[in-house]
Amino acid sequence: MKIQTRQSERGFTLVEIMVVVVILGILAATVIPQFITSTQDAKISAAKTDIANMENAVERFYINMDRVPSSEEGLKVLADAPSGEEKKWRGPYIKEVKSDPWGRPYQYRAPGVRGKNRFDIWSLGADGAEGGENEAADIGNW
């Protein structure tokens, strides 16, 4: 009669599992910062695109209305006709006034003071404050 011997069960030891966890931790520590900077770059690019679109909309508004929106009217007159001038207005020039990628409203000023344009449109950037450098810098049409 043959006695069947059972082969030892194969599995991972605690040391092997710990080595794998450490390796995964090292990989995550090197890869995740690259995704974070990619996210910031994407937000900055989206803000620049939004500002360019709103700048074009203000130019179309200027062609029809013979003026740029006042600072008091802001960018909302690109989506909704200014009161008293509904006949001249040929909008909407944009579907809606969006917030910047950081969830804050875009800033508008007429007459412009930062560039050669008649008006300034800008986002306060990642820090939400005037000025700043690198990712926290203001993004505008200047």
CATH superfamily: Glycoprotein, Type 4 Pilin
In the CATH hierarchy, the third-tier topology is known as: Glycoprotein, Type 4 Pilin
The counted number of beta strands is 3
Number of domains: 1
User: What is the structural class?
Assistant: mainly alpha
- Written as H for each helix and E for each strand, in order along the chain, the element string is HEEE
| DSSP strand content | 5-15%
Strand order within the widest sheet? 1-2-3
Unreliable segments of 5+ consecutive residues: none
Mean pLDDT: 86
Distance between the termini: 93 Å
Number of helices: 1
Helix content range of the residues, please?
A: 25-40%
Could you give a short account of the major beta sheet? 3 strands, antiparallel
Rg, Å, rounded:
28 Å
- CATH architect. name: 2-Layer Sandwich
What does this 3D model show about the protein?
The protein is mainly alpha-helical and 142 residues long. It has a single domain (19-140), classed as Glycoprotein, Type 4 Pilin (2-Layer Sandwich). It has 1 helix and 3 strands. The chain has one helix at 14-65; strands at 107-109, 120-123, 139-140. A 3-stranded antiparallel β-sheet has the order 1-2-3, with helices on one face. The protein is elongated. The relative contact order is 0.12. The model has no long low-confidence stretch (mean pLDDT 86).
